[in-house]
Amino acid sequence: MLARTRACGVTVNDTLHHIARLNLPFGGVGPSGIGGYHGEAGFQTFSHMKPVFRQARLNGAGMLNPPYGKRFWKMLKLLMRLG
């Protein structure tokens, strides 16, 4: 029967206990709700991951941009020998 049930949460042999469990999502499916919104599941439901990359002030990325200096050419020659 559970395999054929459309629900966000189900309690077997009792009523409403899945709502009190913070580690289980709570909410409806379809027109009755917007999915699980309880505990960590709720945080994941209403969150949008936003990746942020911060380049360190001291980094070698500047060597890859023109105008190319002596350090760039030395590094390129070294990499070509190693590769």
UniProtKB/TrEMBL annotation:
A molecular-function term among this protein's GO annotations: aldehyde dehydrogenase (NAD+) activity
Top-level taxon of the source organism: Bacteria
GO terms (BP aspect): aldehyde metabolic process
Keywords for the protein's UniProt record, in alphabetical order: NAD, Oxidoreductase
InterPro entries named among the record's database cross-references: Ald_DH/histidinol_DH, Ald_DH_C, Ald_DH_N, Aldehyde_DH_NAD(P)
GO CC field: cytoplasm
Protein name: Aldehyde dehydrogenase domain-containing protein
Organism: Dyella japonica A8
